Amino acid sequence: MGRLPRYQRLGVRDRQFQGTDYAGFRGQARSAQAMSEAFDQMGQFLYKQAQEDSVQAGLERVRSEGAQPILERLREQGGPRGLEEKTAYEAANRIAVAEIRTEAELEITKILDQGQAKKLSYSAIQAQLKDVSDGFPAALSDIDPVSAGLLRTQLQEATSKAELRYSKWWTGEIAKQRKVKQNQVAANEAEFILGNATVPGYTTQAIDDDIAKGAQTLLDLGVKQELVDEWSEGIKEKAYKENFLFDFYQKPIDEQRDLMESVLEGEKTLPGMDYEKSIRFVNGLLRPEYNRNLAAVKSQSDFVVNKAEDAEDILVSGGRISQDLLASMRDKANDVAEFDGGAALNAVNELQETDTFF
Q1: In whole angstroms, what is the distance from residue 227 CA to residue 244 CA?
Q2: Among candidate residues 167, 94, 86, 154, the one with its CA nearest the CA of residue 125
Q3: I need a labelling partner for 322 at 20 to 30 A (CA). Which of 203, 255, 258, 336 fits?
């Protein structure tokens, strides 16, 4: 074992190596690390800025060139390359979907408006709406099948709602058209029956038969039974009245009088009426007609009497009268003899005597 130097026995220690202080190197290392971090930050900044520039360039490209043209070109080249094209692709895709959906919604509105204006059938509108839901997404099917599928789903929902709206309108329109047709048929049938009611030989049995035919036609058109019954009763009442009035007007005045008296005395009722209605009908319509005819008879009687007096004056004055005139006056007097108490006929007889005397 080695001995220690003798001066160690004296308590003096030799100088030991304490290590070198490399302060300058440490400073250089820290500076290098700081510079490296600065370069990293600068690189990240520049990369981020480049990304932002690429994104902005892609968006600007969509704005300037249009969404669908860009999508078409990117599809032809096999897809987007680089951040700018990817940004342009994504933006153009979103815009294209929105544009196509907007165009499709406008087309749906147009289809509904034109359908109502032209009164197109529900099936025709269904076919047109299906063309929209199938056709519009086809513009994206080759470019972006996923977006095309999503757009197709959205348009199918929109067209389904449109179909429901048109179905509701079309149902109301069909009901309206059916009602118009029913009213037209009802009016035509009624006009036919009422027109025939004033034709000679058209009996109440013929009226009943034609009403039954008209009622069946209305039932076949979907008119409710209670409405058909109401129509039948109304037409029957009017047709019976028209038919009876026509027949009454053709009767001689004496037959008119006998008919009214038989009703007023309760011996008979008028067709389709009970006793009370028959009385009201006689007093309301038949009697005024009879009174007008009776007034006409009185006028004719007065005419004959006045004419006979004038002829008397001619004979007394030495003149002569025509035998034809005398015969005509006698015919008119006979027509009213039953209703004027024979006044006109007496005047003619007296004129005949005077003419014979002179």
Answers
A1: 26
A2: 167
A3: 336
196 with 206: CB under 8 angstroms?
Answer: yes
Contacts of 212 (CB under 8 A, 6+ apart): 232
> Between 82-118 and 67-76, two packed helices, what is the crossing angle to 10 degrees?
120
pLDDT digits (tens, 9 = 90+) for 51-107: 333 333 333 444 444 455 665 665 656 555 555 556 556 666 677 777 788 888 999
Q: Rounded CA gap, 310 and 329, in Å?
A: 12
Give me 342's structure tokens.
């024979």
Q: What is the pTM of this model?
A: 0.55
* 222 Cβ contact partners less than 8 Å away, ≥ 6 residues apart: 178, 182
Residue 141: phi and psi, rounded to 5, are -60, -35
Instruction: Round to whole Å and give the CA distance between 347 and 334.
Output: 11
Torsion of CA 31, 37, 38, 41, to 10 degrees: 180
Q: With b meaning 16 or more CB within 10 Å and e meaning fewer, what string describes 261-297?
A: eebeeeeebbbbbeeeebbebbeeebbeebeebbeeb
Q: Residues 178-229: pLDDT tens digits?
A: 999 999 999 999 999 999 999 999 999 999 999 999 999 999 999 999 999 9
Rounded CA separation 174/348 (Å): 74
Residues 6+ apart with CB under 8 A from 124: 115
